[in-house]
Predict the structure of Diguanylate cyclase.
Amino acid sequence: LTMESQLYHALERNEMFLVYQPRVDVKSGRIVAVEVLLRWNNKDLGFVPPISFIPVAEDTGLILPIGDWVMHEACRQCRLWTDAGLTLKVAVNLSARQFKNKNLLRATVSAINAYGIDPGLFELEITESILMNHTESSVATLRQLSDMGVGIAIDDFGTGYSSLAYLKRFPVHALKIDRSFINEITQEAEDLAIVRAISSLARSLHLKVIAEGVETEAQLQFLQYPECDEYQGYLFSKPTTAEKISDMLSSGI
Ligand code: G
Ligand code: G
Ligand code: MN
Ligand code: NA
């Protein structure tokens, strides 16, 4: 009953599901997007957190079918929201192995087309370190996706060693500022300075700025425009079910 052997059957046994965390427009206070987060509830192992099973899924290659499933499920949900008159972008996390895979373009387009969603409502989140290990073909794929209208966001921005020149060369649309810079932004002058620098860099490159891990009203005050366009975090909502997201949207948030 190793995690690996259980993970092989997780999809066919319907043990995986998605939760969604709202991304909120700082100015209007409205939900404009959701980050899609994978969850696994196994009959023997119980709830296994992604930080435990994603590395196993990466090592075994299972992240490829699981990642395809995540993209399909996210697009299916996006379609349901669109049909209900709710316009909401879905942002899916991409692992290193998915990014390097030669089928990334086909897999992404397949999910988008299966539900006929607007490609502009689909976004990929890629960490700095994954992006820095790109190949020519993975960058070409990003460009093709970007040309279709798919968004590309750099996740955990500020924690890796990204060459700033890449921000210009790559088809990147948004920077998600890592929550380690937001955590103590109200007390630490350096953190505020870093957030301001990232934000002004992003703005001059015409990228959207999203603050992650916003937990308090005080933190949000420090992140009002022009620091950030959108924020995400426990202050507004933890990752939650699609139904709860629909309820929030329907009630006008
Ligand atoms: O809620 P949270 O514990 O979901 O996420 C923990 C980590 O797992 C985050 O770094 C997040 O990016 C990653 N993660 C969550 N869902 C997915 C997914 O569908 N695919 C990949 N590759 N990573 C994910
Ligand atoms: O690495 P990535 O940014 O994809 O992962 C998002 C992770 O951050 C998920 O595990 C999610 O549950 C978590 N998260 C989301 N909002 C908050 C928050 O306000 N505080 C903390 N500590 N974690 C958060
Ligand atoms: Mn993310
Ligand atoms: Na992040």
